[in-house]
Write a structure and sequence with these properties.
The structure holds two protein chains of two kinds.
Chain A lengths: L3 H6 L12 E7 L6 H15 L5 E7 L6 H8 L6 E4 L5 H5 L9 H14 L4 E6 L8 H13 L3 E7 L6 H15 L11 E4 H9 L12 H11 L4 E8 L11 H18 L1 H4 L10 E2 L15 H13 L1 H7 L2 H11 L10 H16 L5 H7 L1 H15 L4 H27 L7
Helix pairs in contact in A: 2-3, 2-6, 5-8, 7-10, 7-18, 10-16, 12-17, 15-18
Chain B lengths: L1 H53 L2 H7 L3 H6 L5 H24 L3 H44 L5 H24 L4 H25 L1 H20 L6
Helix pairs in contact in B: 1-4, 4-5, 5-6, 6-7, 7-8
C-alpha cells in the first residue's frame, strides 16, 4: 500500500488528471544546468516516438537550492502533461558530502509509481537529470519493450569505455549475475522502466524502517523485478556522461555505498538466490556501438601501491574475513611487480564472497568492512586495466565473461558458508 | 591451699567453657556461611560459564579487540576467567560475612567499606571495558581511512589514536576508584598532552615533506582524473 506519509507530503501541481499511457519520471537535485535540456529531450522523445500515446512528465526534485525546480517549470511552460512533486528527505543525506545521487530517491521513485498507478499508465520510465548525454531516444528505448513486447522491467545498457564503471565490471555485474542468474549488465542503472504490474507490486511492498539506503534504490528495483518472477529485458541507450558538478566522493565511499546496497538486498532475498544455478541471457533491445579507439591513459601504479599498503596495514582486518589460503595468494600478489601484477578471477570472486559473508555475520562494523575492501578492489582494477589495456571490445567482453564464470563457480562454496556460518572461521 | 587451687582451676575452666560456649555458635555460623557460599559460588560459576558460552563470549572478546584477556585466562578462555572470578567473589563475600558472624568488629567495618566501594569498582570496570572497545573501533576506523588515503604512517596514526583513548579511559577509571588523586590527574595531563604534541610535531614538522608530497599527489590526481578515461561508476 502507498505510504500515507509520502502522500501527505507530496504536493501536486497539475492541470489534468486524465489517465495516460506513459509516465516519465525525472529525478533531480541541484541540476540547474541540465534540467531544461533533459526535460526538453524527454518531451520531444515522447511526442516523436509515441505520437498516438498519452504521456505525463513527472519532475521529482530532492529540494534543490539552485533554482532547478523553477527552471524545470520554465522548460515545461505551456505543457499540460507536466507534474512537479516533492517528497520527504532524510536531512542526513543532504548534509553528508559522501552521499551519491538524489537524496530521498526511494521516496521519489515511490511517489512516481503512485502517480503512474493513479493514471493507470502502462509504462513508467525513470530518468536521472544529471546525465548530459540523455537523448530523446532514451525514454522510447526504455518504454518500447514494455508497451510492445509486454516486458515488466527494462534495465539500461550504456556504451562505456572499457575502463569506465570498474565497480560494475568487477563487482556489481558478476556478483548479481551469479546470485540471481540473469545477465543484466547494469543492475544499478540510474534509468529504467517498469510496467503497470510491476508498479503495483512495488507499491504493495511494505516500507521497512532502516530500509536500504537511497543509494540502493536502483538495485532494489532491479532485484525486486528479478525475484518477483517478472519479465526482464535490457535496452541499449548509448554513452552515459554525467554532468561534472560537485567532485565525486572517495572511491572507498562509493564502494561502501554501492556494495552495501547490494548486500542489503542479498540478505533480504537469500531464499531466492540460493536456489539459482548458473545464469541466462536477458532479451536485449537496441545495438551497442563501439567505443572510440582512444589510447589508455590510466596509471595503475598508485592502485598497486594502494593494494600493497592495504596488505601491509590491514592484514589484521583481512584475517578476520578471508581464509588463510586467500591471504597467502594475496601475499604473493603483493610481491608482484607492476609488469606482472595479476588478480586471479577466482581469487577475486572468493574475496568478494568472503566480504559478503563477513558483512552478513557482522564480523566487524559493516562500514569499516566495506571500506577495508578498497585496497583489494583497487588491486583488481589495476589488474583488469593491465589485462585489457591493449584488448579490443570482444577481448574485453571475454575477460569480463571469464570473471563472471568464476563468480558462478565459487557461488556453491559461498552458499555452504552462508548456511553454516559457524563453520566459517578464517 | 588445695581448695584455693581447685577453686582457681574451676573458675578458669568455667571461663574457658563460657568463652567456648560464646565462641562455638559463631564458629558454627562461620562454617555454615562458608558452606553456603561454596555451594552458591559453584552454582554461580556454572551459570556464568554456560551463559557466556551460549553467547560465544570468547569469540566476541577476540572480535572486540580484547584478545589479551584470553592470554591471561586459564585455558585461554575469558568465559572461564569470568566464571572463576564470579566464584572467587562470592567466596570472598562469604568469608567476610562469616568473619562478621564471629562478632569481630574489624571485619564488619571492612565489609561495610567494601560494599560502599563496590559501585566505584563496578563503574571503573565498566569505563575501562567501554574505553577499550571504543579505542579499538576508533583505531580501526582511523587505520582504514588512512590506508585508503594512502598515508604511509597509517599504523602509527591508528596506534596514537588508540593510546589516546586508552590513557583517557585509564585516567577516568582511576578517578572513579579515587586512587592517586592529583598525581593521577597530573600524570594524565602530562601524558595526554605529550602524545598530542608528539603527533602534532610528527605531522607538522617531521612529516612536513611527506604532507606536501601527499598534497602534490592529490593535486596531480585531480588533474589526472580529468584526463583519464576512468571512472569507478
Amino acid at each position: 500500500m502507498p505510504d500515507p506519509a509520502i502522500e501527505e507530503h507530496a504536493k501536486r501541481q497539475t492541470e489534468s488528471s486524465d489517465d495516460c499511457d506513459i509516465v516519465a519520471g525525472i529525478l533531480s537535485y541541484n541540476n540547474s544546468e541540465t534540467i531544461a535540456g533533459v526535460i526538453g529531450a524527454v518531451q520531444e522523445g515522447l511526442s516523436t516516438c509515441f505520437p498516438g500515446r498519452r504521456s505525463l512528465l513527472v519532475h521529482a526534485d530532492g529540494g534543490s537550492k539552485d533554482g532547478t525546480q523553477d527552471l524545470a517549470l520554465e522548460a515545461a511552460a505551456g505543457t499540460k502533461n507536466f507534474l512537479q512533486i516533492s517528497f520527504p528527505i532524510d536531512s542526513v543525506q543532504k548534509l553528508s558530502p559522501e552521499y551519491l545521487g538524489v537524496p530521498g530517491k526511494t521516496s521519489a521513485i515511490n511517489e512516481i509509481c503512485i502517480v503512474a498507478d493513479e493514471r493507470k499508465a502502462a509504462a513508467c520510465v525513470v530518468l536521472d537529470s544529471n546525465v548530459r548525454s540523455l537523448t530523446r531516444e532514451w525514454p522510447a528505448a526504455l518504454a518500447r519493450p514494455i508497451l510492445e513486447n509486454e516486458f515488466d522491467f527494462v534495465s539500461p545498457c550504456y556504451l562505456r569505455h572499457k575502463f569506465d564503471g570498474a565497480i560494475f565490471s568487477g563487482i556489481v555485474y558478476p556478483f548479481t549475475r551469479a546470485l540471481y542468474g540473469k545477465r543484466i549488465l547494469q543492475p544499478m542503472g540510474g534509468e529504467f522502466a517498469f510496467s503497470a504490474r510491476l508498479v503495483r507490486h512495488f507499491l504493495q511492498q511494505p516500507r521497512r524502517n532502516g530500509d536500504a539506503p537511497d543509494s540502493g534504490s536502483d538495485i532494489r528495483v532491479t532485484i525486486g523485478a528479478l525475484t518477483g518472477g517478472f519479465r526482464v529485458a535490457q535496452a541499449f541507450l548509448g554513452p552515459r556522461v554525467m554532468h561534472d558538478g560537485e567532485p565525486a566522493p572517495e572511491v572507498s565511499s562509493i564502494l561502501a555505498q554501492t556494495l552495501g546496497a547490494i548486500l542489503a538486498q542479498m540478505d533480504r532475498t537469500a531464499s531466492v538466490w540460493q536456489r539459482v544455478r548458473g545464469s541466462e541471457k536477458v532479451p536485449t533491445f537496441g545495438s551497442c556501438g563501439e567505443t572510440g579507439a582512444e589510447p589508455a591513459s590510466v596509471d595503475i601504479n598508485p592502485m598497486i601501491q594502494s593494494f600493497r599498503l592495504g596488505y601491509e596495514s590491514l592484514q589484521d582486518i583481512w584475517r578476520m574475513v578471508l581464509p588463510p589460503a586467500t591471504l597467502m595468494d594475496l601475499k604473493r600478489m603483493s610481491l608482484q611487480t607492476a609488469g606482472t601484477f595479476r588478480f586471479d578471477d577466482f581469487l577475486w570472486a572468493r574475496t568478494v564472497y568472503g566480504f559478503a559473508l563477513a558483512w552478513r555475520i557482522r564480523t566487524i562494523d559493516r562500514d569499516h568492512l566495506l571500506k577495508a575492501l578498497t585496497p583489494l578492489y583497487l588491486g583488481w582494477v589495476a589488474s583488469y586495466i593491465r589485462a585489457v589495456s591493449d584488448a579490443d571490445s570482444k577481448q574485453t567482453q571475454a575477460a569480463i565473461e571469464a570473471l563472471c564464470t568464476a563468480f558462478e563457480i565459487e557461488k556453491s562454496n559461498f552458499i555452504s558458508q552462508w548456511r553454516w556460518p559457524d563453520r566459517f572461521n578464517p | 591451699m588445695r581448695d584455693a587451687v581447685n577453686e582457681v582451676l574451676s573458675q578458669v575452666a568455667a571461663r574457658v567453657a563460657g568463652a567456648l560456649t560464646n565462641f562455638l555458635p559463631g564458629i558454627l555460623a562461620l562454617f555454615i556461611i562458608l558452606g553456603l557460599a561454596i555451594v552458591f559460588a559453584l552454582i554461580l560459576r556454572v551459570i556464568v560459564r554456560r551463559a557466556l558460552e551460549r553467547i560465544h563470549f570468547d569469540s566476541r572478546m577476540d572480535r572486540w579487540g580484547l584478545s589479551a584477556v584470553a592470554e591471561w585466562s586459564p585455558q585461554k578462555s575469558p568465559s572461564l576467567l569470568a566464571a572463576r572470578g564470579a566464584f572467587l567473589t562470592v567466596m570472598l563475600i562469604g568469608a567476610l560475612v562469616g568473619l562478621s558472624a564471629l562478632d569481630a568488629t574489624l571485619p564488619s567495618v571492612f565489609i561495610v567499606q567494601l560494599f560502599h566501594y563496590f559501585p566505584h569498582v563496578a563503574a571503573a570496570a565498566f569505563i575501562l571495558f567501554v574505553g577499550v572497545i571504543v579505542s579499538r573501533v576508533l583505531a580501526r576506523g582511523v587505520l582504514i581511512s588512512a590506508v585508503n588515503m594512502q598515508i604511509q604512517s597509517a599504523r602509527l596514526l591508528s596506534l596514537g589514536v588508540k593510546w589516546l583513548v586508552i590513557v583517557l579511559t585509564l585516567a577516568m577509571a582511576l578517578d572513579h576508584l579515587r586512587l592517586g588523586g592529583m598525581v593521577v590527574q597530573l600524570s594524565f595531563a602530562i601524558l595526554f598532552g605529550g602524545i598530542v604534541l608528539a603527533l602534532a610535531l610528527a605531522v607538522g614538522l617531521g612529516s612536513k615533506e611527506m604532507v606536501s608530497r601527499a598534497w602534490e599527489r592529490q593535486g596531480d590526481k585531480l588533474e589526472r582524473s580529468a584526463e583519464e578515461h576512468f571512472h569507478h561508476l
